[in-house]
Amino acid sequence: RGNGPISAFCHIMQSHGIDVQVDDYYEHAMSAGGDANAAAYLECTVAGGTYWGVGIDPSTTTASLKAVISAVNRALRVSR
Question: Could you read off the pLDDT of 2-49 as tens digits, one per residue?
Fold first, then answer.
């Protein structure tokens, strides 16, 4: 268990019945400069399955949280 914003976000989702855990993480700037968007790629385990999520935002933290949401949404689509 981590202690950063991604871990806290996953913990909140778990408290609402969504079993999500981040297994791998990669991020990079999409261009040069201080106003560049960050792209975050996360491999997550959601309800026992492995799913990738991608998030893009000027904030690396927000990009990461969007990537968690992306992985969870993908898992929910597959489970329907």
Answer: 669 999 999 999 999 999 999 999 999 999 888 899 999 999 999 999
- pTM, whole model, 2 decimals? 0.90
Instruction: Give domain 5-79's CATH number out of 3.30.160.270, 3.30.750.24, 3.40.50.300, 3.20.20.390.
Output: 3.30.160.270
- How far apart (Å, rounded) are the C-alpha atoms in residues 77 and 80? 6
CA distance 49 to 39: 23
Whether residue 51 is predicted with pLDDT greater than 70 in this model: the reply is yes
Burial of residue 21 (number of CB atoms within 10 Å: 0-12, 13-18, 19+): middle
Task: Give me the residue spans of the domains in the chain.
Answer: 5-79
What are the φ and ψ backbone dihedral angles of 7, each rounded to 5 degrees?
A: -60, -45
